[in-house]
Every structure is written in C-alpha cells, then in structure tokens.
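> tool_call: predict_assembly(chains=two)
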Amino acid sequence: MAVEFIDIVETSLAGIGTGSLMALTGVAFVIIYKATKVINLAIGEMLMIGAFVFYGFSAGLSLPIWASVPLTLAVAAVIGGLIERTMIRPLLKDNPVSVFMVTIGLTSVLIGVVELVWSAEPRRLPEFLPSQPVLFGEVFIPSKTAYSFVIAAAAMAVLITVFSFWRGGIALRATATDRAAASSVGIDVPGVFSFSWMLAAVVAALAGILVGSVGGISSAMGLFGLSVFVVVIVGGLDSILGALIAGLFIGWLEAMVGRFMGGEFKLLATFTILLVVLVVRPYGLFGTHEIERL
Amino acid sequence: MSPSHSAAPVRPPAARLDVENLSLQFGGVKALDGIDLHVEPGSITALIGPNGAGKTSAFNAISGFYRPKTGTVKLDGVDITQVPARDRAKLGLARTFQNIALFRGMTVLDNIKLGRHAHLTSGVFGAFLYWGKTRREEMELRAEIERDVIDFLELDHIRNVPVAILPYGLQKKVELARALAMRPRILMLDEPVAGMNREETEDMARAILDVRDEWGVTVLLVEHDMGMVMDISDHVCVLNFGRRIAAGSPTEVRNNPDVIKAYLGGSGDPRKAALDGAAMGEVA
C-alpha cells in the first residue's frame, strides 16, 4: 500500500494539533522552572485539575462556556497560588531535591482531590468547539484538533510576546539564578514565586480544557505530563520557544510514527529523540548553557 | 564644581545610617551582641574584625536578609528594621556580597541593568499599552548606565560578555557596578577586594574613593585587607565575637589595645602580618 500524500498531510496536521497542546503545557512547566528553578512533576496533574474544574462549571453547574472558561482560569490561579504558598514557599531555603519530591507528592494529592470530588470515572466535557470539520481542499482536519490548535497558538503567542518585551521576564530569570542578589536589587522574590505558579496553573488549566475537549477527562489524564517532560527536556527546561518547537515536533513525530509504523513505536521514537538530545545537548535545544569558569 | 557640570545626573543625597543595640542569634550562638554603628553621610566607614567576628552577619541584618533579635536600623533617622530587603533596596540601600552574587548566564550589561529594576515604573501591561513609554524608559536607562556606570568603572570592553567567564576581580567590579546602577544613597560592600592582587586592590580602592567623591554616596564596607581599610576609611568600627570593641578614626583604632589584642592574640598569628602591613601602608 503506497503512502498517500494526503494521508501524510492529514496525519501531520493532527500531530501538530496534539503537539500544540504539549507545547502549551510545556510552556506552563517552563514558566515555573524559569522563575524558581523548581522541576514541577505535577504539571500534568495541574492540567487535569483545571480540566475537572472546567467540567464542574460547564457540566456540573451548567454554566455557559463564556463564563466557565474565565472562572476555571481564575480558580486555577488560586490553586496555583495555594500550592506555591503552602508547599513550595516553606521549602524556599531547602535543597531543590526536597522541592522536587514535594511536587511528586503533589501529583497524588491532586489526583486524590479529583477522585474524591468527581470519582475516578472518565467523563466527557460538554461540546463547545464548533463541530464542523475543517477542510483545506481535500485535507480533512477534525474540528476539535483544529480549534484547540488555534486557541493554544493564540495563548502561546501572547505568552511569548509578554516574555520577550516585558522587563519582568528578566526579573524572573534573575530570581531563578540568585535569590539573594535578586532581593538586593529590589526584586520581590516571593512575589515572583507566586506569580509564576499562578500563571503556570492558568496556562496548564487552559491546556487541560483543550486536551479534555479533544479526548475526554479522567483522573489519569495527568499522564499527558509524561510526554510534556520529554518536550521540555528536548526544548530546554528554561526556554519557552524551545517548549513550543519541541512540542510541535514531538506531537508531529508521534502521530507520524503511530500512523505509519504502528502505535507501539510511538514511545520508542519519542524516547530515542530524548536520548539523542540528552547526549548531544544536555541543556536542551534552546536551553541556557551555563558557562562555568573553573 | 563649575556650572558646566550641570549635565551630571541629579544624585540622591548621601544617607546616614544608625544601628543601635543590634543582636542576632543562630540557635545558641550569639552572632551579634548589642552592636552600635553610626555611619555619617558621605563617609567611608569600615567594619573590621577577625574571622567570625560577625561582620557579615551585621551586614546581612542591616540590608534586611536577617531579622535581628533586638535593636534598630535607621536610615536617615527612619526605622527600617522591619522593612524587607527588596524595599530597603528601593530606599537607596545597595550592597554587594562576599561570595559574588551575580546573575550568572547573563551579560555584564544585563546584570548592571537589573540594578535599576526596582526603580522602573512600567509593568507587564506597559509592554503592550505604553509601548512608547516603556521603550523610552529603556533607552534612557541604557544611556544612563553607559555614561554613569560602565564608562565610570571602565567596563565598556566587557559589557556584552557573560559574567560567568570573567576573572574574579572583574566580577567584583561588575557587582559594584550593579549596586551603583541602583543610584544608592548608601553603598554596602562586603569584602570588595578579597582575593585580589595588589594591582586589582588598588584599582578597586580608587573606584570606591571615586564613587564616594563623584556620586556623593555613603560607603560602608567589610574588609580584611588592613592596608586598604586604613588608607581609604574615615571611620573604622571593630567587632570581635559579636561585640563592638572599638570605633574611631583609623589611627585611633590601630592604637587601641583591645584591637591589638583581638588581632594579635597569641604569637605566630598570621593576622599580625596584616596589621603590620597596615602600618606600613599608612606611612607610605
């Protein structure tokens, strides 16, 4: 069976659609890492809880979409702020490994909260994206993939613009590099911590709404975070642009390999890329390479 | 000076610092035990003492990194004991660190510009809404830093170099530059010439004197290099075991029997050489 050109295009576009969601979640991870040097293993679960909060507003309380989305993002910001205030800030002066371990614990806490409130049952989000498939000539793109891509792309465009032109972006980096030096030049270090966790939680919740609207939600959907870790390691832990490019690329690669080689090769391909990047550029494709004077 | 110097930027007036009865405790260890320190506006005041005397602890308490157990810190008569470090920075208190605290991975220029961070007004939405204003602020900042800090400290040849690859002496100087970019009213330098060779030390000492004279800023420094301390200070305060054992002009302090005892202790103390060096430096 010859591979048809149109099949390649459709698979590619579907892959890029999924990739854009990985990229968006990757950006949420990068925001926290960039400002606080915390490796947040719970990013997938922050995405999940965002999706469930949205489910609560849109299905549980039957609120319209235009109200559910902003409410979800606001609740996500509060959750992000709470996590930072209660679990991360008390460990500010501790070893980074402790903070990393705390984020592992956080995954279980968030899963537990969701299962207590909504049970472990998988659910579907109310349909809110237009259901008409998008056609480019003969190329068919499922509507949810297309619209979630557009929304994710818009969100990332805003974030990238903010971080390239806003002076605070460099304050985030400064805080991550040296907290004492940062407060000595007047940077509000606890403020930066709160801000980055709240913003990351909002971005993750938006990604959660989109991921959930494409594939449904369940308490296990945080596993999506695993692919996101590959994305951020490949792209560079502290690079928003890196998360974007690596996200799109890995989404595309997984779709192509899954379509033309079989689903069992997906992870093989992803982790091969991860391995190669770690050997060749351990700080990621776009990550900051720390120069050390010995 | 002559009116032709009117292009010089308006500098905030030098600040007066008063520390009274400052105590600091780590568990059972009294790091500071009721020290008093008065720093006159526009003076260069040195805080000296043997290792472990509490100099850096005092520095950290004054700049707001440690909360003292008792005592007050006053800037121009205003009690700032409860003010967090970042807000003390905004009040004009700038400091450097004993173990250089630069933003590694950034260039010299970015490091210095961050010194002005606290003083700029445009926020995150400014980047979108007041494009022009933010841009203008950025340009003015850049011009000011080029003129007043980079040229002044002769750092122009390394402005775009990542700080991490610079030799130690230059890193110390970049830290001073960043503190200056904050337009400080009082500049606190924690061991500005530690680990420097004679030439670098003289260069730094000259820079500190120039900063005081041209910027009209108060300088408070901690230093082990006695020759340098005695040469440039107006006032010296000596700590030992968390207590102030002497304060006065360099000459008074050098002849104070308690100070001599603290430094010389028993025979064969390597610090003896340092103090002898100081005496020679004064004559020369």
